Amino acid sequence: MLHPSALFLIIVAISAAAARGHAANGTPAARFWEEVLPGTPMPEALAELVQKGIDHSPLVENFTGPYLSIGMCLGHVYMSVCSVERVKKAGTGLFFHEEQVRVGTTMTVSFSPAAVPAILPHAAAAKVPFGNLTAGDVAAMFHIPPGSTMITQVGDTLRACQTVAPPHPHAAASEPHACATSLEDIVRAALRTLGTAAGGGVWVAASETPRGGLPLQPYAVDKVTPLDGDRHVACHDEPYPYAVFRCHKIGLSMTRAYLISLRGLHGGPKVAMAVICHLDTSGWNPAYPAFEMMGTKPGESSVCHFMPYANLLFGVKATGAMESF
C-alpha cells in the first residue's frame, strides 16, 4: 500500500488533468446530478464549488486554512463541538423557534462570508485516502502546522466521519450518517441515509445565501413553502483542506422543512432560505449552543435553523409534490 504522501502526489496529477479537461456545464458531476435527481436543478452554490474544484483544485494549489465551518456546528447535536462564540462569528439569527416561520414575521439575520473549500472531481476524490487517515497524515499532506487550530478541526472531522454510531443518550436512537468528498458521493450518502436508492422521488433544497454573506439587518418573511416529509437528511460541510460533507438524519426525532423568502427591510435582494426544524430536542446535549442563544433547554421547544451556504437538505416527495425547489 502506498504511503499517503506518495499517493497524494499521484492524485495531484489526476486533479491537474481534470482541470484542463472539463468545461463548467459538462462536468461528470453535473451529468450525474441530472441523471440521479431528474428535474431538480443543482443549487448554484454547489455548482460553484464543483467548478472551483476543477479550476482551482485544493490538491494543486496551496492550502491556506483554517476556515469557520458553521455547518459542523449544526451537524453535531449529541456532543458539544461548537461554542456560542463560534456560532456568533458565523452570523446572527441562525437558530429560532418554529413560530417565527410564518409570513409577516421579522427576523434579524446576518451571515459571514462563506469559506467552504472546493469539491473534488469524483475521479480524484475516489483515489485520495480519507477513511483511515489521521490528523497527522493530513498535516503532512497539506503542510498544515501541527498543533494549529486547523489540524484540531481536521481531527474532529476525521473522528466524526470514522465513527460508526455517533454518541447518543438513547442507544435505540442512533444517528445514521455518512461522509462524502465528491458531489456524486454526497448525493449517494444522502439517499442512503434517507433510506432510498432512487433519486427521482427525492427533493433537494439549499439556501440562496450569497458566498459573500448577508448583511446584518431585519428581514421580513414574505413567503413560506413547507417541504415534504417528516424526517429529512441534512448535509453539512466539515473543516478539511478540501470539501467534506457529513450527511445525517438525527436519531428518531421528527423534523419539518421549509423554504422561506426573506426581504431585507433596509434594502438588498430577496433571498430564499432552506430551514429545518427539529421537533424533539430532549436527547440533545445541553451544551448545544442553540439552547443558550434561544433561552431554552433540551426538550422545551423545537429548534429551527437556516441551512448555510452550500449545505443541503434532502427529503422524500409526497405524491403530486413539486418537482424541484
Keywords:
325 residues; alpha+beta; 7-stranded antiparallel beta sheet; 10 helices; disordered N terminus
Show the helix and strand layout:
Layout (H helix, E strand, L loop, with lengths): L3 H18 L6 H9 L7 H12 L14 H5 L9 H7 E2 L2 E2 L9 E6 L10 H4 L9 H8 L6 H14 L14 E4 L2 H12 L7 E4 L8 E14 L5 E6 L5 E5 L6 E10 L6 E8 L10 H6 L8 E4 L5 E5 L9
Helix pairs in contact: 7-8
Walk me through what this model shows.
This protein has 325 residues and is an alpha+beta fold. It has ten helices and twelve strands. β9 and β10 (271-278) form a beta hairpin. α7 crosses α8 (149-162). The model is unreliable at 1-24 and 320-325 (pLDDT under 50). This is BURP domain-containing protein. Keywords: Signal.
Output the helix-strand order: HHHHHEEEHHHEHEEEEEEHEE
C-alpha Rg (nearest Å): 19 Å
Summed up, the helix count is 10
Helix content: 25-40%
Mean pLDDT across all amino acids: 82
Percent in strands: 15-25%
Distance between the first and last residues' Cα? 45 Å
Q: Poorly predicted ranges (pLDDT <50, ≥5 residues)?
A: 1-24, 320-325
General form: globular
Structural class: alpha+beta
Pfam family, one: BURP
Signal peptide: 1-23
Protein name: BURP domain-containing protein
Keywords: Signal
